[in-house]
Design a protein that fits this description.
This protein is an alpha+beta fold and about 325 residues long. The chain contains 13 helices and 11 strands. The strands form 2 sheets. Strands 8-9-2-3-10-11 form a 6-stranded antiparallel β-sheet. Strand 2 and strand 3 form a beta hairpin. Helix 8 runs antiparallel to helix 9.
């Protein structure tokens, strides 16, 4: 980027967004991670804290741009402002430096920026409550403050670097590693994860891969991990719906079955799998599943009759009558 243009951008943001320390700023002391998947290019941020609804304050992200974690005596404006600066072409370090330079409360801030290329910048103010620190690595940064022990960020970094799998799996492994080191000195309350695409599609509704929050729970990291598994299952359900809409009942059946295998006790996942069995003329396999579902909740029987009108169930009226008698 042209140095003169860069200087103008920084000056304009400093004048527009001067930071003032305020005693009312939330005490979101916490541990977090910003990270990039080098294979898919996806970028994500996750956090846990003994604070209600931590995700609404700490985590920010924009597809094709980057992700931000802003915590400690948190200034939430670092999220949207940091993303705006990185979108203008500043590196994470340049963006973070520009904001810190005008922040009278910088000694209380802990902030991490990561862009779509995996470049990172991290700041831990010298008045963050101990134990506080951070560690950067290739495509990630981990940071923590008000921890019981000063081993948290190294445990997170080591685990992220040595874990295989999807970005969400590696992020959650790092989060669990923090908790295994006792995490926040105050305990546990809420957690969040946000993953966006490294390259924007132009359709904002497609660019967010995962956005999950646990607002208040006795074990928020474990609950967040359960929700991620549920998210995977419903992603299969969504793909099944799309296949069903396109008339590809074989593909839809496969997608619904994948979802059902993740959460076999979920009636809806069982139901749509059975509906596609009917559409594929596999009545002997579908009947016992539907019979069990109808026994547990009669509303599914009523829904089955309504599917005919929407053309999501392609069977004869006689066959429908037989099903409704199950």
């Amino acid at each position: 980027m042209n140095k003169v243009f860069l200087f103008i951008i920084i000056l304009s943001f400093q004048s527009m967004y001067s930071q003032m320390y305020k005693q009312s700023e939330p005490f979101t002391h916490t541990y977090s991670i910003v990270a990039r998947d080098s294979v898919t290019g996806d970028i994500g941020v996750a956090v846990q804290s003994h604070w209600f609804s931590v995700g609404t304050t700490v985590t920010y992200g924009k597809a094709g741009v980057g992700v931000v974690a802003t915590q400690s005596l948190v200034n939430p404006s670092y999220g949207p402002k940091g993303l705006a600066l990185m979108e203008q072409g500043l590196s994470p370090q340049q963006a973070l430096d520009a904001l810190i330079a005008n922040d009278e409360g910088k000694m209380y801030r802990q902030v991490a920026f990561l862009n779509a290329n995996g470049d990172v910048a991290t700041h831990t103010g010298n008045l963050c409550i101990e134990a506080a620190g951070h560690r950067q690595g290739k495509n990630f940064s981990v940071q923590a403050n008000m921890m019981l022990k000063n081993t948290v960020w190294d445990a997170m970094a080591d685990t992220f670097e040595n874990t295989q799998g999807s970005l969400s799996e590696r992020i959650m492994a790092a989060m669990k590693a923090a908790q295994s080191e006792k995490g926040d000195i105050r305990g546990k309350q809420s957690a969040a994860i946000l993953i966006v695409k490294g390259e924007a599609t132009g359709n904002s509704w497609e660019d967010t891969i995962m956005d999950l929050r646990v607002e208040d729970h006795e074990n928020p990291v474990a609950e967040l991990e359960r929700l991620i598994e549920m998210h995977k299952a419903y992603d299969f359900m969504n793909k099944g719906d799309l296949a069903m809409e396109a008339g590809d009942s074989k593909l839809a059946e496969n997608m619904y079955l994948n979802a059902q295998q993740l959460f076999p006790e979920n009636l809806e996942m069982q139901y749509w799998y059975a509906i596609n069995l009917l559409n594929n003329r596999q009545f002997e396999k579908a009947f016992p599943i539907l019979k069990s579902i109808f026994k547990q909740d009669e509303n599914w029987r009523e829904l089955t009759a309504r599917l005919m009108k929407s053309k999501l169930l392609a069977i004869s009226e006689e066959e429908l009558k037989q099903i409704l008698k199950l």
